[in-house]
Write a structure and sequence with these properties.
0% strand; 3 helices; single chain; mainly alpha; 53% helix
Length: 70
């Protein structure tokens, strides 16, 4: 399956799950956020790299967190 078809299928499945009355509010908010993120991507566009350097340690520390000295 092509990536765009997979993305469209995933959005549809998430929307189906969100219709369930038993869905907790936090999970519903997370699902809507993910649908919004998936929907904004243009065909052929790669994932955002925002925050990747910080989380992978490319900001000067080994774990991506600032070190403090005692």
């Amino acid at each position: 399956m092509a990536p765009e078809e997979e993305r469209t299928r995933l959005i549809g499945e998430l929307a189906t799950l969100l219709r369930e009355d038993s869905m907790p509010d936090g999970a519903r908010a997370a699902g809507l956020t993910l649908i919004g993120w998936l929907g904004r991507r243009m065909p052929g566009e790669g994932p955002s790299q925002a925050g990747v350097a910080e989380m992978t340690g490319h900001n000067g520390s080994s774990n991506g967190l600032a070190r403090t000295r005692s």
